[in-house]
Write a structure and sequence with these properties.
Blueprint: E1 2-6, H1 16-32, E2 35-41, H2 46-50, E3 59-63, H3 73-87, E4 89-95, H4 98-111, E5 114-119, E6 129-135, E7 140-146, E8 151-155, E9 172-174, E10 204-208, H5 218-228, E11 231-234, H6 236-240, E12 261-265, H7 271-277, E13 282-287, H8 294-297, E14 300-303, H9 306-321
Parallel strand pairs: 1-2, 1-4, 2-3, 3-9, 4-8, 5-8, 10-11, 10-12, 12-13, 13-14
Antiparallel strand pairs: 6-7
Helix pairs in contact: 3-4, 5-9
This protein binds flavin-adenine dinucleotide.
Residues 209-211, 213, 235-238, 249, 251-254, 266-268, 270, 272-273, 276, 286-289, 292, 305-307 line the site of flavin-adenine dinucleotide.
């Protein structure tokens, strides 16, 4: 029996969270005495596929989909189920990404399997199979028992560190008899914004709240984000006021993000904002109010005026970057 780990790629490379997913899948498989099998659909080079062995994949299977622009979850669900049959998959793991969140419930519904999203911990044992996740905007952990034979989960971002296990694997290209007639949705065109890092992809996010005082001061955040190769985000009141575009608003009603580093400048740390950013690996906050709730969520905190602190930080980053 196996744990089937679905690894989506972006233009032939795996996002960082896929390494976390494979690490977690391997640890779970080891504990359940199953094999960790990676399934990667699409066009990924063999050496990139083999790289997943470094994180402990026992087998790496690749199904070459007929058309790189296929965007059809029912088609991918068919692919997953055909592969699952071949490898006797009992547990299905997905990243908690847009792709994972779309596919995992489909697989669960097809098998009548239990489904838990954004899991944070590995079950201690196979029976009872109990997983942990955060609820109430990340304020509380809950343990959920999954009772069905087959189980489907998505992994919360940064729930585990990607840890090397160094297993040698030779990727296998699988043919599973794809039914092209099942493809009903295709991508026709792609428009990319030039020179801008997508907020949901960014490893570093520089975010501002009402404490930034006025829209002009966000140029400081743009400069810092540019230096760090990151993206700019904001709180909801900031986008409601029209200081920043609505697609930068993070939180319960905005984007859910989990960068490696999240800077919060002039952000109070309301629960609705934290709901969208608290999975960040490291949070650094700058606020004039030492009692601001953001400091409870932050790993690093500075009590300072953002407009005084930011130029100094920008200068320090520039000095660090200059040869
Ligand atoms: C149903 C619902 C959904 C919501 N969804 C979201 C959501 O998705 N995302 C979201 O962000 N909010 C959301 N909100 C709003 C949320 O409750 C807060 O009101 C909002 O996050 C506060 O934004 P803020 O931190 O920018 O502003 P404020 O709460 O006004 O905080 C400003 C902070 O800046 C500090 N400050 C002031 N001057 C400076 C300075 N010069 N330098 C440094 N710090 C300074 C202040 O001490 C303060 O802590 C939602 C609310 C509701 C009711």
């Amino acid at each position: 029996m196996s744990v089937l780990i679905f690894t989506e790629n972006r233009n032939g490379t795996f996002p960082g969270y896929i390494r976390e997913l494979v690490t977690w899948g391997r640890q779970l498989a080891d504990r359940m005495q199953m094999q960790a099998v990676v399934l990667s659909p699409g066009e990924v080079k063999e050496e990139t596929l083999a790289g997943l062995g470094k994180y402990g994949a026992g087998r790496v299977l690749c199904v070459r989909v007929p058309d790189p622009d296929v965007m059809d979850n029912r088609f991918y669900a068919d692919v997953i189920m055909k592969v699952a049959e071949k490898v006797h998959a009992e547990i299905f793991l997905f990243a908690h990404s847009n792709t994972g969140k779309a596919l995992a419930p489909v697989i669960a519904a097809k098998y009548g399997a239990a489904y838990v999203s954004a899991v944070t911990g590995i079950p201690e044992q196979a029976n009872p199979f109990v997983v942990r996740k955060k609820i109430f905007s990340g304020k509380v952990f809950t343990d959920i028992r999954m009772k069905t034979g087959k189980k489907v989960m998505t992994l919360a971002p940064h729930a585990v560190e990607a840890v090397a296990a160094y297993r040698e694997v030779t990727p296998e290209i699988l043919s599973v008899g794809l039914d092209k007639a099942r493809i009903t949705t295709r991508r026709l065109d792609v428009h990319t914004s030039q020179g801008k890092v997508l907020l949901t992809d960014a490893n570093v996010v520089v975010s501002g709240g009402r404490g930034m005082q006025n829209p002009g001061n966000f140029s400081l955040l743009e400069e810092l984000a540019g230096l760090l190769g990151g993206a700019v985000a904001c709180t909801r009141p900031v986008s409601d006021e029209g200081w920043r575009p609505a697609d930068e608003h993070a939180g319960q009603t905005g984007k859910i993000i989990a960068p490696d580093l999240y800077f919060a400048f002039g952000i109070s740390g309301a629960i609705q904002h934290l709901a969208g950013v608290s999975s960040s690996k490291v949070i650094a906050a700058v606020n004039t109010d030492p009692d601001a709730p953001i400091f409870e969520a932050a790993d690093y905190g500075v009590v300072a005026d953002a407009m005084t602190f930011l130029p100094k930080l920008i200068e320090a980053v520039k000095r660090r970057k200059s040869p």
